[in-house]
Amino acid sequence: MEYLFHPGQRGQGMKKSARAKAASNTAGLAPPLDFDALRQSIARAQSALPRRLTQAAEYALAHPDEIALGTAASIASAAEVQPSTLVRLAHQLGFGGFSEFQSVFRDRLRLRAATYDERLRRIEQGTTDGSYEDALLNGFLTAARQSIERLSETIDVAAFARCVGVLAKAETIYLVARRRAYPMAAHMSYSFGKLSIRAVTLDSANGIDQEIVTMATAKDAAIVCSFAPYAPASLAQAQSLSERHVPLVVLTDSALSPLAAMATHWLEVSESDFAGFRSLSAGMALATALPVAVAERRRFSFPAAGPAAHGQKIPATRGIA
Fold it and tell me: Which domain holds residue 53?
């Protein structure tokens, strides 16, 4: 038998073909320059990504530090995919290869590792005209304004209404949040209390949160707030509540957040930052709106049943002092 090409040449041809295919994926696609842009790029591409690429992308967003510090082999093993899948994902998102993809995660880790003094020095170095205080204040106000404007433009009002519907029917609302997201839970706890709506925040000082979770039932609901890199305690509590068939309303930052997969309904909250200090303005706007909307839905939807049947008062929402 006469070969039309040498077996070694065939292998080279296959490699060239693979590279050409990868190059075609990046045609006209600029790679994301930072971690936030990468999250948004993955969210936009989610519906078109093959199953294995989606699996790799979900792992990357849920474990950004591991992506920054690991090797392609160790990351692939942890994500339960092949190393070639990571390369394909990088190409799909516009990167030249896995190293470029990984550099976004390393930049994010370096930024997070910066001390607060270093962040303040960056603000000071960026001050050209006017006072340091003026530059700082305007920087934070701009980040807050951008966050609110983005939420206003992107919020799915129908999804918000579905979240309210689930919470309005709940006997007890459990609040789950840690770290940067914790003020959202604290504010909702205060608001629900003022509105006479039974709510429990899972932040016990004596460490019995898991025991409290075991009291939750499918007649209750939970609000879970968490943003990348996602507090492990929040993920664990959300998983435990989900296993108990408790409906979850999730406030998170990406369709590929591990919480989005557990959610009954979820709302996307994307915050801007100033010099590495991230705003919480959009999240707090939702944390303010949800309790009031739940109280109003209960007032109009449950005249003789629902929460009132369980001894809960349904107040008129005249404001929260």
Answer: 7-113
Kindly state whether residue 172 falls inside one of the protein's structural domains: yes
Final residue of a domain: which of 67, 93, 113?
113
Region of residue 179 (phi > 0: left; psi between -120 and 50: alpha; otherwise: beta): left
Q: What is the tens place of the pLDDT at every residue in 27-86?
A: 456 888 888 788 878 877 877 889 899 889 888 887 787 888 889 998 999 889 999 999
Model-level pTM? 0.64
List for the chain the helix, strand, coil content (%; round to 5).
60, 10, 30
210 and 293 assigned to the same domain? yes
**Could you tell me if 63 and 162 lie in one domain?**
no
- pLDDT per residue as tens digits for the range 246-305: 999 999 987 778 888 889 999 999 888 887 788 899 999 999 999 999 999 998 875 444
298 and 194 in a single domain? The answer is yes
| Amino acid letter, 252 | T
